[in-house]
Design brief:
Layout: H1 5-15, H2 23-28, E1 37-41, E2 44-47, E3 52-54, H3 58-61, H4 70-82, H5 95-107, H6 121-138, H7 168-171, H8 182-190
Antiparallel strand pairs: 1-2, 2-3
């Protein structure tokens, strides 16, 4: 399939909000054209100009089996025709979810007995905290709820949207954080700390 690269780039610039992109520079064209990725095979991706690149990020860490795997595409297609998606909240499941989870548990080392499926690192972190709280409730220690989150790093969004000032690339477009966001004040007070 041949695409109109200039037209796609213009549509992208006008309609897509890209994370970790200096938006003003991107909108003005200062950053150049977007890289339009068209295909992938194994560890390589190919852009709209035919240039092949090794995808060191593996699709931002979610294509660990490589691109172009026909067995994966066929499994996705089969499932999409039956049921494209359903959540696992409130004890809901699907046959494929149960089968895959059973297989993963049997393959895993040690005494792993459950699989949690998340959509992001944020919900994985939140779930870890909730599991620890639940575990302590079962142990008869419901007061053990204190978070020991660092003031820097990935958890900055979970600490009331406090941006990490030490990473200038991440915080430059937003300016220095003040720690004054209402969510930060609430989380600080819940943790027994004063907000700045």
């Amino acid at each position: 399939m041949t695409i109109d690269v200039k037209n796609i780039a213009e549509m992208d610039r006008n309609a897509v909000l890209h994370p970790f992109t200096q938006l003003k520079d991107f909108a003005s064209g200062k950053l150049g054209e977007p890289t339009i990725v068209e295909t992938g095979k194994g560890i390589r991706i190919q852009d709209a100009h035919g240039k092949q690149l090794i995808d060191g990020f593996a699709g931002l860490y979610c294509v660990n089996v490589g691109y172009g795997r026909t067995e994966v595409a066929e499994a996705i297609s089969r499932q999409a025709y039956r049921l494209a998606y359903y959540h696992s909240y409130a004890a809901h499941t699907t046959d494929e979810l149960a089968i895959l989870s059973d297989r993963l548990v049997r393959m895993a080392p040690g005494k792993m007995s459950k699989v949690f499926y998340g959509m992001s690192g944020s919900d994985a972190n939140e779930t870890q905290a909730k599991l620890v709280w639940y575990y302590n409730n079962l142990r008869g220690k419901p007061h053990k709820k204190k978070n020991h989150l660092p003031r820097t790093g990935i958890s900055r969004l979970q600490r009331g949207f406090r941006l990490n000032d030490r990473h200038e690339f991440l915080s430059r477009p937003y300016g220095p954080s003040t720690g004054r966001h209402p969510a930060y004040r609430r989380s600080a007070s819940l943790l027994g700390r004063r907000s700045r």
